[in-house]
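Example record

Each entry pairs one chain with its bound ligand, alpha-D-galactopyranose.
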Amino acid sequence: MAITHYEALSASVKHLFKLDTPNSSYVIGIIDDEGFVTHVYYGDSIGDYHLEEIPRIDEMPFLPSNNNRDRCSFLDSCPMEYPTHGLGDFRQDCFKIETVNGNAGVSLTYKDYRIEKGKPDLPGLPATFGKEDEVSTLILICEDAVTGIEYQLNYSVFEDLDVITRNVRILNKGKEPLYLTRVYSACLDMDNEDYTALTLHGTWARERKITETKLNRTRLVVESVRGETSHQDNPFIAVKEATATDRYGRVYAMNFVYSGNFRITTQEDQFGQLRVTMGISDEDFKWKLEPGADFVSPEAVMVYSGEGTGKMTRTFHDLYRKHLIRSPYKDKKRPILINNWEATYFDFDTDKLISIAKEASRLGIEMLVMDDGWFGVRNDDNTSLGDWTVNENKLKGGLKYLVDEVNKLGMKFGIWFEPEMISPDSDLYRAHPDWAIAIPNRVPSRARNQYVLDLSREDVLEHTYESVAKVLRSANIEYVKWDMNRQLSDLGSALLPADRMGELYHRYVLGVYSLQERLLKEFPNLLLENCSGGGARFDPGMLYYSPQIWCSDDTDAIERLSIQEGTALVYPLSTMGAHVSDCPNHAVGRTTPFETRGHVALAGTFGYELDVTKIPEEDRNMIPEQVKMYHRYNDLVREGDYYRIASFRANGVYDCYGVVKKDKSEALFTYVQVVARVNYHSRRIFLQGLAPDKKYRIEGEDAVYTGEVLMKAGYRVKTMHGDYLSRLIHIMEV
Ligand code: GLA
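Structure tokens for the complex follow.
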């Protein structure tokens, strides 16, 4: 059993709960007569010998039961599992309320516990899952006697991975309504160490660049208040010992299974202890909880690695591939697609799409995706979102005709939607202006000339669902790219009462989830790819619904190196939407070899985003080879263990990463020489993840190496002549 309960280990330590994963232990202590829920230990696995000695309860400020005059000092320094607001813990808390009298202070006292096999679903929310023999759950039941709040602090412990997930359920068992003004999902109080944070930041076309920050007394806040997780910030943090590297040292990571506003904070307190919190952002958040009602927070995933960030990454990848993504496609090759966005933008018709499909199918491409511009009168990005009727001026003969023609070529067909949006210039807006998120008497700010639909409303949800489903029912459509091209502003709903307006952000996200859930129920074999102006909603919440997410609107192979490095720090390669596009690249104007573009896209889902009838002949002729390459390596890329060997982001010269088959019989490393330099020796790269005693041959070479030699003495990559050149290093056991 991964969860052990110890009772009355000492006069002050009333209960201890020890949560064990294969290589980590997490210990919670219920201390003192009042039942404070304290954090005792997190890190490499430890035994159960004298755990009660770990808490610092025999030193100042001592426990309130024997030193209540210094209660505030106790609350302000004791490591807590779920710190609450306003009673003397002056650090960042996780939970804050507003009572009908306007008070905010609230306590949390242990009452009872339950241990269950398996892991309960979170109603309406995405969450990791596991069978009864794969995960078990500790539920700490706590209360605030004054308001009647019952808390359920949930910890699910995985048997096969160093993962503990957390969330809370809040029940109003009092007689008065309450307003929740802050409900975070997790807190991690660390002992005094020297820590550095890794976080992921960016903007449109530059998503998820890895940022390192030395942590100190200054509070670090990683947050989105944009209504989605955003290009700018990702709901991820890794706190590592300052000396930890990719391969060594302790790393504590958290990722939020949620696709809306979030907030992560870190701060060293006055004694050098670090507190990390994660949850829904409390900016404009206020949730009314009537007596008898409950609120369930989204899930925070905690990963521990005692072997650097590389192991952390592989744990996240395994967790998400096995315990989060549900799609029937998750363990399968995805059809190689060709998307017409960068090929045609809005300028296409049936003939154009069929000509692309004909040529693409001849070359071995397996699915045509029709992107933006097929509906309403949308010939640019100024109109028609919400009017999901086929534009028969462009698609002569209708959608079904086009899909059938594409199917006749032996290709699947996919389509683009942006279901959450409404153009001011649309029939939908003219009929229902109140369906857009807006503040009364204010003209909402436009972004890409569009507004956001109020998905907190049942009528809007129903209409939106039917608009999408009707199209999908009308033809053999096997893939949907679900886009979301603006962030939320001007928060206001025409239906929500004043004292529930602070629920809009979260209700919006719940609305998105309910739409996607319903879609997958009706179309269980649909391949869904989420997208948000590129990769603004690349988060674990979305992965619960779609096995892949479009990584970025920047398709340049060199820019993609760091975007994909940051993405793959947390998210599996099988989820990264990556395409070969035409050059000069539309985003940066750079020209890279077609071969390099293929090698870089191979690290993701793989596909094309170009007009295959127009690209240079020599590029087109390489496509059948690339198709073969994809079929040959995709199982390995999708299911293997990922190792980062070198980072162009960090060294400015070259990039190298690899995937190793779980049984270590095969590996594929990708090496990109971004910048050529004159008069240097060949480069030695130190491979990782191989079995030291296995013998390997590198494809195209005769020599046989042991894994030990390739990892310790390294493998020499010959210098290539020119910039932006790449090489695949395919390694097979002999
Ligand atoms: C977003 C997506 C692109 C494309 C356009 C269409 O920017 O990320 O891939 O679909 O919208 O408008």
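The mean pLDDT is 97.
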